[in-house]
Specification:
The complex is a heterodimer.
Chain A: E1 2-11, E2 14-24, E3 29-33, H1 40-48, E4 53-62, E5 65-66, H2 72-77, E6 80-83, E7 90-94, H3 95-109, H4 117-130, H5 135-138, E8 141-142, H6 148-162, E9 166-170, H7 178-191, E10 197-201, H8 205-210, E11 215-220, E12 223-228, H9 230-239, H10 242-251
Helix pairs in contact in A: 6-7
Chain B: H1 5-13, E1 27-29, H2 36-45, H3 50-65, E2 88-90, H4 104-112, E3 126-132, E4 135-139, H5 142-147, E5 151-154, H6 155-161, H7 163-169, H8 180-188, E6 193-197, E7 206-212, E8 223-228, E9 233-241, E10 249-251, E11 254-259, E12 264-272, E13 284-294, E14 300-307, E15 312-315, E16 318-321, E17 327-336, E18 341-350, E19 356-365, E20 370-379, E21 387-396, E22 402-411, E23 417-426, H9 429-436, H10 442-458, H11 463-476
Parallel strand pairs in B: 3-7, 6-8, 7-9, 8-11, 9-12, 10-13, 11-13, 12-14, 13-15, 13-16, 14-17, 15-18, 16-18, 17-19, 18-20, 19-21, 20-22, 21-23
Antiparallel strand pairs in B: 1-2, 3-4, 5-6
Helix pairs in contact in B: 2-3, 3-8, 6-7, 10-11
The chains are: A alpha/beta, B alpha/beta.
The complex binds adenosine-5'-triphosphate and magnesium ion.
C-alpha cells in the first residue's frame, strides 16, 4: 500500500529525514517510536504534503501512485489520513459542516455524488457511537475551545467518518485519560480491516497493548535505526533509547 | 505540490473583475462641470417643482462651504468636481409601460449581472426597481404593492406624484449640511428609490433595487428615501455592480430611513462595484451617507451590509434612536483586497429612554487591502438605560494587509451600558493545511473559513440573498490565501 524508499527531506535548510525506508501493506499496523525531535511528525508532514518541507531525495508510492507529486488534498482523497499531534482550531466552521464538506470532496474525487443528508446523519450517529464522541462537540466550531483530549478524540471521529485506507496517528494517545485511551483504541480496532492500514506514532508502550502492532520501528535522527515486533516496544520501555542511539551514532560516521 | 502563498496571492490579485463590460446605449449626458446652471438643467430635465430647485441650490451653496473630510484613515484622492458629468440617462423614445418596452441591451446587461428583472425570475418574491445610471427603467410587482397602499417608485416619480411626502421627509435625516458628499448629492442627485409603507402594513415582499453605473465618467448620486409609518414593516435590499472603467468614478449616495412608532425597517446592501485592478487603478469611490431615524417609540432600524467592491468605501450607516425603547442594529462584512480601502462603521445615537443598539462588524483584509472600522456610540443626557453592544472582528489573509479599529464612545448618561469587544485573527497556513489534509482544497477551505467568520452577519440578510452573498465572498477571495 505504502512504499517509502530512501526518503529525505529538509525544512528551513535543516535536513530532518535522512533516508527512510518503510513498507506498509494492507491489514498491517506499524508503530513508530523514537525520542523527541527524531523526525516522527516530520515524516507524517512529508507524507501528507506539508508545504514547508522540501523533499530532497527518495520515492514514495501509495497504492502504486507517486504520492509526492500529489497536492495535499489529493493525497487525502486517495485515502491518506493524518490524526494530528496538535489539531488546529478553526473558529466559525462547524465540525459537522466541515466533515460533510470533506466527505463530499472525497466522494467527488471518486466520481460519487454528494451523500444524502439523511445518510450523512445516520453515518454521523453511527460513528459518534463507535468512538463515543460527544454529540455536542459535533455541532461546535471545529476544535475551537476543545480540551486537549477532546481534540484527539475528534481526530479519531473524523477518521471513522472518512474511512481512509492509511491512517497515521501522531501521538493520539498523549493527553488522553485512561478511559479515553481505551475508547480510542477500541475505536481503532473496530475500524481495522484487511483493506486498511495504520501507522501509530507513540512514546508509550501502553497504547500498543490496546492497538497491537505487527511491526515496531525506532526512528532516530531522521532514520529508522531498528525494526522489530511488539516486543521491541517492551524492550524500549525498559531500557530507553540510549542503547539504540549508540550504534546509530557510529553508523552515521 | 501545493502552491506557495506568494504564488497564490499573485494569482488571486490577477483575477479580473467579472462584471467588467460596458453596455453600448446612446446616453443623454449633461456636459461636464458643476455650477448653478448644471443644477437648473437637471431640475428642468426632471420637471421639478420650484421648492426642490431651491433646495438643490441651497445644497450647492452648502457644498461650496464644506471642508473635505479629513479624519478618515486614508488619503482622500483629489477629485476634480468640474470634470464630472452630473446627469446621464439612457435615451428613450417615450415613457415605458412595461418590461417589453425596455431596451433589450439593458435587459441583457442586467441578465449578465444575474439580476432577476423579468417577473418569472422574481417569483421568489422580489420586486425590482432597476436604476440604470440615473433613471429608473423598470418596476415590477407594482400591482401587489399598490393593493397594500405601498409606494415603491423612483424618487423622480415620487416628486411628481407625492410631492408633499417627499418635501416633508427629504433631507430630514441627512440634511445637505451634513457633509461635503451629502451636500453634493443634495445639489445634483439624479434618482433613486422612494418607499412609503402605510400605517400597520407589513410589506409582503422584499423590496430591492439594483444600481448600476454604466456611462463613463459619470458621477452617480442616488437619493433613497424610505418611510415606514406607524406599526409597519419593510425589508429593503440594495445590490450593486458596475462595469469596469479605467478612470475613477465617484458615487455619492444618500439614504434616509424614517421609522415611526412601532415600525421596523431592515435595510440590506450587497455592494460589488469595480474595486480597481491589482495595481489600484480604476475602481469606484463610494462615499455614501446612510442614516435612519427611529422617530417613534419601539421603532427599529437594522442595517446589514456586505461590502466587497469599490476602490474606496467611506460609509457609516447610522441610527438616531429618538423614540423610547427603540432599537438600532448594524451588521457588516467588509472585504478589501489588492489596494482596496474600506473605512466603514456606524453611528448609534441614543436619545430616547431604554434605547438599544447592537453593532457587529467583520472586516476581512487580503492582499494589500486596508480595512478600518470606525464606530461611534453616543448616549444623550435623557437616554436613561441606553444599552450598546459592539463586536468588532478583523480577519487577515496574508501579511501585507491591514485592519484598524476606531471606536468612539461618548456617554452623557450614567445609567448607560456600553460594551465593546474586538478580535483580530489570521487565516493560518496550518488551518488551511488541516482542511487540505481532509480532502478540502485551498479555495474551498478559505470559503469555509470566511463564510464561517461572516455567518453572524450573513444570517441577517434575507434568505435568498444570504446565499448570493456567501458565493460573492468566496468568489471575491478566490486564491487569496497561502
Ligand atoms: N518548521 C520547522 N522549522 C524548523 N525546524 C523544524 C520544523 N519542523 C520540525 N523541525 C525540527 O525537526 C526535528 C524533528 O521534529 P519532529 O516534530 O518531526 O519530531 P518528533 O519526532 O515528532 O518529536 P516529538 O516526539 O517531540 O513529537 C526537530 O528538531 C524540529 O525542531
Ligand atoms: Mg511529533
Amino acid at each position: 500500500m505504502l512504499n517509502i524508499k530512501n526518503l529525505q527531506a529538509k525544512v528551513e535548510d535543516k535536513q530532518i529525514l535522512k533516508g527512510i525506508d518503510l513498507q506498509v501493506n494492507a491489514g498491517e499496523i506499524h508503530a513508530i517510536m523514537g525520542p523527541n525531535g527524531s523526525g516522527k511528525s516530520s515524516l507524517a508532514s512529508v507524507l501528507t504534503g506539508r508545504e514547508n518541507f522540501e523533499v530532497t531525495g527518495g520515492e514514495v508510492s501509495f497504492d502504486g501512485k507517486n504520492l509526492l507529486e500529489m497536492s495535499p488534498e489529493d493525497r487525502a482523497r486517495e485515502g491518506l489520513f493524518l490524526a494530528f499531534q496538535y489539531p488546529v482550531e478553526v473558529p466559525g466552521v462547524s465540525n459537522i459542516n466541515f466533515l460533510r464538506t470533506a466527505l463530499n470532496e472525497i466522494r467527488a474525487y471518486h466520481n460519487e455524488p454528494p451523500m444524502e443528508a439523511k445518510e450523512f446523519l445516520r453515518l454521523t450517529k453511527e460513528k459518534q457511537k463507535l468512538v463515543e464522541f460527544d454529540a455536542r462537540l459535533t455541532n461546535r466550531s471545529l476544535n475551537e475551545g476543545f480540551s486537549g483530549g477532546e481534540k484527539k478524540r475528534n481526530e479519531i471521529f473524523q477518521l471513522a467518518m472518512l474511512n481512509p485506507k492509511l491512517a497515521i496517528l501522531d501521538e493520539t494517545d498523549s493527553g488522553l485519560d485512561i478511559d479515553a485511551l481505551r475508547v480510542v483504541s477500541s475505536g481503532v480496532n473496530k475500524l481495522r480491516s484487511d483493506k486498511n492500514a495504520f501507522i501509530v506514532i507513540t512514546h508509550y508502550q501502553r497504547l500498543l497493548e490496546y492497538i497491537v502492532p505487527d511491526f515496531v520501528h525506532v526512528l532516530y535522527n531522521g532514520r529508522i535505526v531498528k525494526s522489530g515486533t511488539k516486543e521491541l516496544a517492551l524492550e524500549l520501555e525498559e531500557k530507553g533509547y540510549d542503547w539504540i542511539k549508540e550504534p546509530a551514532a557510529t553508523a552515521s560516521v | 505540490m501545493a502552491k506557495n502563498s506568494a504564488e497564490i496571492i499573485e494569482e488571486y490579485s490577477d483575477k479580473e473583475y467579472e462584471y467588467g463590460f460596458v453596455t453600448d446605449i446612446e446616453m443623454d449626458v449633461v456636459p461636464k462641470g458643476l455650477n448653478e446652471d448644471t443644477i437648473h438643467l437637471i431640475s428642468a430635465k426632471k420637471n421639478e417643482p420650484q421648492w426642490l430647485l431651491e433646495w438643490r441650490l441651497k445644497a450647492y451653496q452648502s457644498f461650496l462651504k464644506q471642508p473635505e473630510p479629513h479624519w478618515q484613515n486614508f488619503e482622500l484622492p483629489k477629485i476634480d468636481f468640474q470634470d464630472i458629468s452630473y446627469y446621464a440617462a439612457p435615451r428613450q423614445k417615450e415613457k415605458l409601460k412595461d418590461m417589453d418596452e425596455v431596451d433589450p441591451e439593458l435587459i441583457a446587461t442586467f441578465e449578465k449581472l444575474g439580476i432577476p428583472l423579468s417577473e418569472q425570475k422574481v417569483l421568489a418574491g422580489v420586486a425590482v426597481d432597476a436604476v440604470f445610471d440615473s433613471v429608473s427603467v423598470a418596476t415590477t410587482f407594482q400591482k401587489t404593492l399598490k393593493e397594500h397602499g405601498i409606494i415603491f417608485s423612483s424618487v423622480s416619480k415620487a416628486v411628481q406624484e407625492y410631492p408633499e411626502l417627499v418635501q416633508k421627509y427629504l433631507g430630514s435625516v441627512v440634511p445637505y449640511s451634513d457633509n461635503m458628499f451629502a451636500a453634493l448629492n443634495g445639489a445634483v442627485f439624479s434618482d433613486g428609490s422612494f418607499v412609503y409603507i402605510p400605517k400597520g402594513v407589513r410589506c409582503p415582499m422584499e423590496l430591492s433595487t439594483y444600481f448600476r453605473i454604466n456611462a463613463g465618467n459619470t458621477g452617480q448620486f442616488e437619493r433613497t428615501l424610505i418611510i415606514a409609518d406607524e406599526g409597519s414593516y419593510v425589508s429593503y435590499l440594495e445590490g450593486c455592480t458596475a462595469p469596469k472603467r479605467d478612470e475613477n468614478q465617484m458615487h455619492a449616495a444618500v439614504v434616509e430611513l424614517i421609522a415611526h412608532e412601532n415600525a421596523e425597517i431592515k435595510y440590506s446592501t450587497v455592494q460589488n462595484w469595480f474595486p480597481g485592478n491589482k495595481d489600484g487603478t480604476g475602481g469606484i469611490y463610494n462615499f455614501v451617507t446612510k442614516r435612519g431615524i427611529c422617530k417613534g417609540n419601539n421603532a427599529k432600524i437594522s442595517w446589514t451590509q456586505v461590502e466587497t467592491g469599490s476602490a474606496i468605501t467611506w460609509k457609516y450607516p447610522s441610527v438616531i434612536l429618538q423614540g423610547d425603547n427603540s432599537t438600532g442594529e448594524f451588521y457588516s462584512v467588509a472585504v478589501t483586497k489588492n489596494k482596496q480601502i474600506a473605512d466603514t462603521g456606524t453611528k448609534m445615537i441614543h436619545m430616547g429612554k431604554n434605547t438599544k443598539s447592537r453593532i457587529i462588524s467583520k472586516g476581512i483584509s487580503a492582499g494589500e487591502g486596508q480595512n478600518s472600522y470606525r464606530g461611534q456610540v453616543k448616549v444623550g443626557t435623557k437616554a436613561e438605560n441606553a444599552r450598546n453592544f459592539t463586536q468588532c472582528d478583523s480577519l487577515l489573509i496574508g501579511d501585507r494587509c491591514g485592519a484598524h479599529t476606531f471606536p468612539y464612545i461618548e456617554s452623557k448618561n450614567r445609567s448607560a451600558t456600553i460594551e465593546h469587544e474586538a478580535t483580530t485573527s489570521k487565516i493560518g497556513e496550518d488551518q488551511i493545511f488541516y482542511l487540505n489534509q481532509r480532502g478540502i482544497d485551498t479555495e474551498k477551505a478559505v470559503a469555509l473559513i470566511v463564510n464561517g467568520y461572516a455567518k453572524e452577519v450573513l444570517n441577517h440578510l434575507p434568505m435568498e440573498f444570504a446565499v448570493e452573498a456567501q458565493k460573492l465572498l468566496s468568489i471575491t477571495l478566490e486564491g487569496s490565501v497561502g
